[in-house]
Amino acid sequence: MSEKTVRLGIIGYGAQGGMYAGVISDGKVEGMSLGAIADTDPAKKELAAEKHPDVPFYDDYLAMLDSGDVDAVVTTVPHYLHPEMTITALGKGIHTLTEKPAGVYTKQVEEMNAFAAAHPETTFAIMFNQRTNPVYTDLKALIDSGELGALRHTSWIITSWWRPQGYYDQSAWRATWGGEGGGVLVNQAPHQLDLWQWLAGAPKKVFAKLAFGFRRDIATEDEVNALVDFGDGVTGHFMTSTNDVIGTDRLELLFDKGKVVVDKSTKVTVYRLSEDERVLSEKMTMQEVSQLFRGELDPSTLYTVEEKEYESAWGVQHIEVLTNFAAHVNHGTPLIADGAEGLNGVRLASGMQLSAWTGREIDLVDYPAEEYLAELNARIEEEGTFPTRS
Protein backbone atom coordinates (compact mmCIF):
# COMPACT_ATOMS: atom_id res chain seq x y z
CA MET A 1 0.00 0.00 0.00
CA SER A 2 0.99 3.59 -0.51
CA GLU A 3 2.53 5.41 2.46
CA LYS A 4 0.01 8.21 1.99
CA THR A 5 -3.73 7.58 2.21
CA VAL A 6 -6.47 9.83 0.88
CA ARG A 7 -9.52 9.72 3.14
CA LEU A 8 -12.45 9.87 0.71
CA GLY A 9 -15.86 11.19 1.66
CA ILE A 10 -18.81 9.94 -0.38
CA ILE A 11 -21.58 12.45 -1.01
CA GLY A 12 -24.66 10.44 -1.89
CA TYR A 13 -24.88 6.85 -0.68
CA GLY A 14 -26.88 5.40 -3.56
CA ALA A 15 -25.95 2.59 -5.94
CA GLN A 16 -22.80 4.31 -7.19
CA GLY A 17 -21.73 5.70 -3.83
CA GLY A 18 -22.35 2.34 -2.23
CA MET A 19 -20.18 0.62 -4.82
CA TYR A 20 -17.34 3.08 -4.20
CA ALA A 21 -17.60 2.61 -0.43
CA GLY A 22 -17.44 -1.15 -0.91
CA VAL A 23 -14.34 -1.28 -3.10
CA ILE A 24 -12.50 1.24 -0.91
CA SER A 25 -13.31 -0.54 2.35
CA ASP A 26 -12.30 -3.84 0.72
CA GLY A 27 -8.83 -2.38 0.12
CA LYS A 28 -9.13 -2.42 -3.68
CA VAL A 29 -8.10 1.23 -4.10
CA GLU A 30 -4.44 1.77 -3.34
CA GLY A 31 -3.69 4.98 -1.46
CA MET A 32 -7.30 5.54 -0.41
CA SER A 33 -9.48 4.84 2.62
CA LEU A 34 -13.15 5.46 3.34
CA GLY A 35 -13.24 8.63 5.44
CA ALA A 36 -16.96 9.39 5.76
CA ILE A 37 -20.36 9.10 4.10
CA ALA A 38 -22.98 11.83 3.66
CA ASP A 39 -26.60 11.44 2.60
CA THR A 40 -29.84 13.24 3.43
CA ASP A 41 -31.90 10.01 3.50
CA PRO A 42 -32.24 8.54 7.03
CA ALA A 43 -32.59 5.06 5.52
CA LYS A 44 -29.11 5.41 4.05
CA LYS A 45 -27.74 6.12 7.53
CA GLU A 46 -28.99 2.73 8.72
CA LEU A 47 -27.57 1.00 5.64
CA ALA A 48 -24.19 2.69 6.05
CA ALA A 49 -24.08 1.80 9.75
CA GLU A 50 -24.72 -1.82 8.85
CA LYS A 51 -22.09 -2.06 6.13
CA HIS A 52 -19.51 0.43 7.43
CA PRO A 53 -20.07 0.71 11.21
CA ASP A 54 -16.76 2.45 11.88
CA VAL A 55 -17.20 5.14 9.21
CA PRO A 56 -18.67 8.52 10.26
CA PHE A 57 -22.04 9.36 8.67
CA TYR A 58 -23.36 12.88 8.05
CA ASP A 59 -26.83 13.98 6.97
CA ASP A 60 -25.30 17.23 5.67
CA TYR A 61 -22.36 17.13 3.30
CA LEU A 62 -21.22 20.56 4.49
CA ALA A 63 -20.74 19.17 7.99
CA MET A 64 -18.68 16.35 6.49
CA LEU A 65 -16.49 18.81 4.61
CA ASP A 66 -15.81 20.71 7.86
CA SER A 67 -15.37 17.60 10.02
CA GLY A 68 -11.71 16.93 9.35
CA ASP A 69 -12.62 13.32 8.49
CA VAL A 70 -12.00 13.65 4.75
CA ASP A 71 -9.25 14.84 2.44
CA ALA A 72 -11.31 14.39 -0.71
CA VAL A 73 -14.88 13.72 -1.87
CA VAL A 74 -16.74 12.11 -4.75
CA THR A 75 -20.10 13.61 -5.78
CA THR A 76 -22.52 10.75 -6.49
CA VAL A 77 -25.58 13.01 -6.50
CA PRO A 78 -28.06 14.35 -9.13
CA HIS A 79 -26.36 16.10 -12.05
CA TYR A 80 -27.41 19.64 -11.21
CA LEU A 81 -25.59 19.41 -7.87
CA HIS A 82 -22.18 18.39 -9.26
CA PRO A 83 -20.81 21.92 -9.91
CA GLU A 84 -22.25 23.43 -6.71
CA MET A 85 -20.83 20.71 -4.47
CA THR A 86 -17.51 20.67 -6.31
CA ILE A 87 -17.06 24.42 -5.90
CA THR A 88 -17.95 24.21 -2.21
CA ALA A 89 -15.54 21.34 -1.57
CA LEU A 90 -12.65 22.87 -3.52
CA GLY A 91 -13.22 26.15 -1.67
CA LYS A 92 -12.66 24.31 1.60
CA GLY A 93 -9.44 22.75 0.34
CA ILE A 94 -11.02 19.35 -0.29
CA HIS A 95 -9.91 17.44 -3.39
CA THR A 96 -12.90 16.56 -5.57
CA LEU A 97 -13.74 13.77 -7.98
CA THR A 98 -17.00 14.71 -9.66
CA GLU A 99 -19.27 12.17 -11.27
CA LYS A 100 -20.27 12.40 -14.91
CA PRO A 101 -21.74 14.49 -16.38
CA ALA A 102 -19.91 17.54 -15.07
CA GLY A 103 -23.25 19.36 -14.97
CA VAL A 104 -26.34 20.01 -17.05
CA TYR A 105 -25.65 23.37 -18.69
CA THR A 106 -22.34 24.91 -19.71
CA LYS A 107 -22.66 28.07 -17.60
CA GLN A 108 -22.52 26.12 -14.33
CA VAL A 109 -19.71 23.89 -15.61
CA GLU A 110 -17.65 26.87 -16.77
CA GLU A 111 -18.09 28.49 -13.34
CA MET A 112 -16.91 25.25 -11.72
CA ASN A 113 -13.90 24.99 -14.05
CA ALA A 114 -12.93 28.62 -13.43
CA PHE A 115 -13.15 28.12 -9.66
CA ALA A 116 -11.05 24.96 -9.87
CA ALA A 117 -8.43 26.76 -11.98
CA ALA A 118 -8.21 29.44 -9.28
CA HIS A 119 -7.54 26.71 -6.69
CA PRO A 120 -4.75 24.65 -8.24
CA GLU A 121 -3.68 23.38 -4.84
CA THR A 122 -6.73 21.09 -4.82
CA THR A 123 -7.21 18.19 -7.22
CA PHE A 124 -10.21 18.37 -9.56
CA ALA A 125 -11.00 15.20 -11.54
CA ILE A 126 -13.99 13.61 -13.25
CA MET A 127 -15.16 9.99 -13.29
CA PHE A 128 -14.64 9.20 -16.98
CA ASN A 129 -13.92 5.57 -16.19
CA GLN A 130 -14.36 4.46 -19.80
CA ARG A 131 -11.07 6.23 -20.57
CA THR A 132 -9.35 3.37 -18.74
CA ASN A 133 -11.05 0.72 -20.92
CA PRO A 134 -8.26 -1.00 -22.93
CA VAL A 135 -10.53 -0.96 -25.99
CA TYR A 136 -10.41 2.82 -26.04
CA THR A 137 -6.93 3.43 -24.61
CA ASP A 138 -5.47 1.23 -27.36
CA LEU A 139 -7.62 2.97 -29.97
CA LYS A 140 -6.60 6.40 -28.69
CA ALA A 141 -2.92 5.43 -28.98
CA LEU A 142 -3.46 4.13 -32.53
CA ILE A 143 -5.22 7.32 -33.64
CA ASP A 144 -2.65 9.58 -31.98
CA SER A 145 0.20 7.69 -33.65
CA GLY A 146 -0.98 8.99 -37.04
CA GLU A 147 -0.63 5.55 -38.61
CA LEU A 148 -4.14 5.68 -40.09
CA GLY A 149 -3.81 9.26 -41.31
CA ALA A 150 -6.40 11.98 -40.95
CA LEU A 151 -9.96 11.33 -39.77
CA ARG A 152 -12.63 11.69 -42.45
CA HIS A 153 -15.85 10.47 -40.81
CA THR A 154 -17.03 8.84 -37.61
CA SER A 155 -20.34 7.34 -36.54
CA TRP A 156 -21.46 5.93 -33.21
CA ILE A 157 -24.74 4.06 -32.85
CA ILE A 158 -25.25 3.38 -29.16
CA THR A 159 -28.80 2.13 -28.53
CA SER A 160 -27.96 -0.48 -25.89
CA TRP A 161 -29.54 1.73 -23.21
CA TRP A 162 -32.99 0.12 -23.15
CA ARG A 163 -34.97 1.36 -20.18
CA PRO A 164 -38.57 0.25 -19.44
CA GLN A 165 -41.22 2.66 -18.20
CA GLY A 166 -40.79 1.28 -14.69
CA TYR A 167 -37.22 2.60 -14.63
CA TYR A 168 -38.47 6.16 -15.09
CA ASP A 169 -41.34 5.69 -12.64
CA GLN A 170 -38.92 4.88 -9.79
CA SER A 171 -38.26 8.52 -8.96
CA ALA A 172 -40.08 11.78 -9.69
CA TRP A 173 -36.87 13.50 -10.81
CA ARG A 174 -35.92 10.97 -13.50
CA ALA A 175 -36.07 12.20 -17.10
CA THR A 176 -37.35 15.64 -16.08
CA TRP A 177 -35.91 18.98 -17.14
CA GLY A 178 -35.89 20.37 -13.63
CA GLY A 179 -34.73 17.27 -11.80
CA GLU A 180 -32.30 15.61 -14.19
CA GLY A 181 -31.77 18.14 -16.96
CA GLY A 182 -32.42 15.75 -19.80
CA GLY A 183 -32.84 12.14 -20.78
CA VAL A 184 -30.52 9.71 -22.52
CA LEU A 185 -27.93 12.41 -23.32
CA VAL A 186 -27.32 13.36 -19.69
CA ASN A 187 -27.97 10.02 -18.01
CA GLN A 188 -26.93 7.07 -20.15
CA ALA A 189 -24.75 8.46 -22.97
CA PRO A 190 -22.25 10.90 -21.35
CA HIS A 191 -19.47 8.29 -21.43
CA GLN A 192 -19.86 7.80 -25.19
CA LEU A 193 -20.03 11.54 -25.82
CA ASP A 194 -16.80 11.96 -23.85
CA LEU A 195 -15.04 9.05 -25.57
CA TRP A 196 -16.19 10.21 -29.00
CA GLN A 197 -14.70 13.69 -28.66
CA TRP A 198 -11.65 12.28 -26.80
CA LEU A 199 -10.90 10.02 -29.78
CA ALA A 200 -12.04 12.18 -32.70
CA GLY A 201 -11.64 15.71 -31.34
CA ALA A 202 -14.27 18.19 -30.20
CA PRO A 203 -16.91 18.92 -32.88
CA LYS A 204 -17.31 22.53 -33.95
CA LYS A 205 -20.99 22.42 -34.94
CA VAL A 206 -24.00 20.15 -34.41
CA PHE A 207 -27.42 19.69 -35.98
CA ALA A 208 -29.76 17.26 -34.27
CA LYS A 209 -33.22 15.73 -34.29
CA LEU A 210 -34.38 14.57 -30.87
CA ALA A 211 -37.57 12.80 -29.88
CA PHE A 212 -38.97 13.84 -26.50
CA GLY A 213 -41.14 11.30 -24.72
CA PHE A 214 -41.20 9.35 -27.97
CA ARG A 215 -41.59 5.79 -26.69
CA ARG A 216 -41.76 6.50 -22.96
CA ASP A 217 -44.00 8.65 -20.81
CA ILE A 218 -41.31 11.20 -19.97
CA ALA A 219 -40.58 14.86 -20.73
CA THR A 220 -37.03 14.54 -21.98
CA GLU A 221 -35.25 12.98 -24.95
CA ASP A 222 -35.37 9.22 -25.41
CA GLU A 223 -34.05 9.14 -28.98
CA VAL A 224 -31.28 11.19 -30.61
CA ASN A 225 -29.91 11.57 -34.13
CA ALA A 226 -27.16 14.15 -34.47
CA LEU A 227 -24.80 15.26 -37.24
CA VAL A 228 -21.60 17.01 -36.22
CA ASP A 229 -19.00 19.02 -38.10
CA PHE A 230 -15.39 18.72 -36.93
CA GLY A 231 -14.15 21.25 -39.47
CA ASP A 232 -12.01 20.70 -42.59
CA GLY A 233 -14.73 18.52 -44.11
CA VAL A 234 -14.66 15.96 -41.29
CA THR A 235 -18.16 14.88 -40.22
CA GLY A 236 -19.79 12.57 -37.72
CA HIS A 237 -23.07 11.00 -36.69
CA PHE A 238 -24.28 10.06 -33.22
CA MET A 239 -27.41 8.03 -32.56
CA THR A 240 -28.73 6.87 -29.20
CA SER A 241 -32.03 5.82 -27.66
CA THR A 242 -33.59 4.01 -24.72
CA ASN A 243 -36.28 2.11 -26.64
CA ASP A 244 -34.27 -0.56 -28.49
CA VAL A 245 -34.53 -3.74 -26.42
CA ILE A 246 -32.05 -5.52 -28.73
CA GLY A 247 -29.57 -2.64 -28.81
CA THR A 248 -26.52 -1.77 -30.89
CA ASP A 249 -23.14 -0.45 -29.84
CA ARG A 250 -21.06 0.23 -32.94
CA LEU A 251 -18.39 2.88 -33.40
CA GLU A 252 -16.80 3.51 -36.80
CA LEU A 253 -13.93 5.83 -37.61
CA LEU A 254 -12.85 6.29 -41.22
CA PHE A 255 -9.35 7.62 -41.95
CA ASP A 256 -7.29 8.35 -45.07
CA LYS A 257 -5.29 5.17 -44.58
CA GLY A 258 -7.77 2.85 -42.91
CA LYS A 259 -10.85 2.27 -40.83
CA VAL A 260 -11.66 1.14 -37.29
CA VAL A 261 -14.87 -0.60 -36.25
CA VAL A 262 -15.67 -1.23 -32.57
CA ASP A 263 -18.56 -3.58 -31.80
CA LYS A 264 -20.15 -3.80 -28.32
CA SER A 265 -17.06 -2.08 -26.87
CA THR A 266 -15.31 -5.48 -26.89
CA LYS A 267 -14.41 -6.34 -30.50
CA VAL A 268 -12.14 -4.03 -32.51
CA THR A 269 -11.45 -4.47 -36.21
CA VAL A 270 -8.66 -2.38 -37.73
CA TYR A 271 -8.41 -2.10 -41.52
CA ARG A 272 -5.11 -0.73 -42.80
CA LEU A 273 -5.00 0.41 -46.44
CA SER A 274 -1.93 -0.41 -48.51
CA GLU A 275 -1.84 3.24 -49.55
CA ASP A 276 -3.75 6.46 -48.89
CA GLU A 277 -7.33 6.08 -50.20
CA ARG A 278 -6.91 8.94 -52.66
CA VAL A 279 -3.78 7.28 -54.07
CA LEU A 280 -5.67 4.00 -54.47
CA SER A 281 -8.45 5.87 -56.23
CA GLU A 282 -6.07 7.52 -58.68
CA LYS A 283 -4.02 4.37 -59.43
CA MET A 284 -6.78 1.77 -59.83
CA THR A 285 -7.80 0.93 -63.40
CA MET A 286 -11.46 0.50 -64.31
CA GLN A 287 -10.74 -3.16 -64.99
CA GLU A 288 -9.52 -3.53 -61.41
CA VAL A 289 -12.56 -1.62 -60.18
CA SER A 290 -14.82 -4.08 -62.03
CA GLN A 291 -12.93 -6.99 -60.49
CA LEU A 292 -13.31 -5.42 -57.04
CA PHE A 293 -17.07 -4.99 -57.47
CA ARG A 294 -17.45 -8.58 -58.71
CA GLY A 295 -15.44 -9.91 -55.78
CA GLU A 296 -12.65 -11.12 -58.05
CA LEU A 297 -9.92 -8.83 -56.69
CA ASP A 298 -7.90 -10.09 -53.73
CA PRO A 299 -8.75 -7.58 -50.96
CA SER A 300 -5.38 -8.14 -49.31
CA THR A 301 -3.85 -6.13 -52.16
CA LEU A 302 -5.83 -3.15 -50.86
CA TYR A 303 -5.92 -3.60 -47.10
CA THR A 304 -5.08 -5.84 -44.16
CA VAL A 305 -7.48 -6.74 -41.38
CA GLU A 306 -6.63 -7.05 -37.68
CA GLU A 307 -9.22 -8.20 -35.14
CA LYS A 308 -8.92 -7.87 -31.39
CA GLU A 309 -11.25 -9.16 -28.67
CA TYR A 310 -11.30 -7.54 -25.24
CA GLU A 311 -12.82 -8.83 -22.02
CA SER A 312 -14.94 -6.54 -19.89
CA ALA A 313 -14.73 -6.60 -16.09
CA TRP A 314 -17.38 -4.48 -14.37
CA GLY A 315 -16.11 -2.16 -11.67
CA VAL A 316 -12.44 -2.41 -12.57
CA GLN A 317 -12.51 0.87 -14.52
CA HIS A 318 -14.02 2.77 -11.58
CA ILE A 319 -11.34 1.38 -9.30
CA GLU A 320 -8.65 2.52 -11.76
CA VAL A 321 -9.98 6.10 -11.73
CA LEU A 322 -10.18 6.12 -7.92
CA THR A 323 -6.64 4.75 -7.69
CA ASN A 324 -5.40 7.32 -10.18
CA PHE A 325 -7.16 10.10 -8.26
CA ALA A 326 -5.44 9.01 -5.03
CA ALA A 327 -2.08 8.74 -6.80
CA HIS A 328 -2.46 12.27 -8.13
CA VAL A 329 -3.25 13.65 -4.69
CA ASN A 330 -0.47 11.65 -3.04
CA HIS A 331 2.26 11.74 -5.66
CA GLY A 332 1.26 14.08 -8.49
CA THR A 333 0.56 11.26 -10.95
CA PRO A 334 -1.13 12.69 -14.10
CA LEU A 335 -4.92 12.44 -14.00
CA ILE A 336 -6.81 10.13 -16.34
CA ALA A 337 -9.34 12.92 -16.80
CA ASP A 338 -8.96 16.44 -15.46
CA GLY A 339 -12.29 17.76 -14.20
CA ALA A 340 -12.20 20.64 -16.66
CA GLU A 341 -12.59 18.18 -19.54
CA GLY A 342 -16.16 17.49 -18.47
CA LEU A 343 -17.24 20.68 -20.27
CA ASN A 344 -16.84 19.13 -23.73
CA GLY A 345 -19.49 16.45 -23.28
CA VAL A 346 -21.94 18.81 -21.56
CA ARG A 347 -21.61 21.33 -24.39
CA LEU A 348 -22.12 18.61 -27.01
CA ALA A 349 -25.20 17.16 -25.27
CA SER A 350 -26.82 20.53 -24.62
CA GLY A 351 -25.94 21.61 -28.16
CA MET A 352 -27.89 18.63 -29.48
CA GLN A 353 -30.87 19.55 -27.30
CA LEU A 354 -30.74 23.21 -28.36
CA SER A 355 -30.53 22.26 -32.04
CA ALA A 356 -33.64 20.11 -31.69
CA TRP A 357 -35.49 22.86 -29.83
CA THR A 358 -34.63 25.59 -32.35
CA GLY A 359 -34.35 23.61 -35.58
CA ARG A 360 -30.96 25.09 -36.46
CA GLU A 361 -27.30 24.11 -36.46
CA ILE A 362 -25.55 25.08 -33.21
CA ASP A 363 -22.05 26.54 -33.06
CA LEU A 364 -20.14 24.66 -30.35
CA VAL A 365 -17.11 26.96 -30.45
CA ASP A 366 -19.03 30.20 -29.94
CA TYR A 367 -21.67 28.41 -27.91
CA PRO A 368 -24.93 30.28 -27.08
CA ALA A 369 -24.94 29.33 -23.40
CA GLU A 370 -27.50 31.92 -22.29
CA GLU A 371 -29.94 30.88 -25.03
CA TYR A 372 -29.69 27.25 -23.96
CA LEU A 373 -30.30 28.15 -20.31
CA ALA A 374 -33.36 30.23 -21.26
CA GLU A 375 -34.79 27.34 -23.28
CA LEU A 376 -34.06 24.90 -20.46
CA ASN A 377 -35.74 27.16 -17.89
CA ALA A 378 -38.81 27.51 -20.09
CA ARG A 379 -39.21 23.73 -19.95
CA ILE A 380 -38.56 23.62 -16.21
CA GLU A 381 -41.28 26.26 -15.68
CA GLU A 382 -43.68 24.27 -17.85
CA GLU A 383 -43.10 21.21 -15.66
CA GLY A 384 -43.88 23.31 -12.61
CA THR A 385 -42.12 20.98 -10.17
CA PHE A 386 -38.53 22.20 -9.83
CA PRO A 387 -36.88 25.64 -9.53
CA THR A 388 -35.41 27.31 -12.59
CA ARG A 389 -31.64 27.63 -12.91
CA SER A 390 -29.28 30.56 -13.20
UniProtKB/TrEMBL annotation:
GO molecular function, one term: nucleotide binding
Record's signal peptide: none
SUPFAM superfamilies recorded: Glyceraldehyde-3-phosphate dehydrogenase-like, C-terminal domain, NAD(P)-binding Rossmann-fold domains
Keywords: NAD
InterPro entries: Gfo/Idh/MocA-like_OxRdtase_N, Gfo/Idh/MocA_Oxidoreductase, GFO_IDH_MocA-like_dom, NAD(P)-bd_dom_sf
Ranges of residues in domain GFO/IDH/MocA-like oxidoreductase: 137-260
Domain of life of the native organism: Bacteria
Domain Gfo/Idh/MocA-like oxidoreductase N-terminal, residue spans: 7-120
Pfam family, one: GFO_IDH_MocA
Protein's name according to its UniProt entry: Gfo/Idh/MocA family oxidoreductase
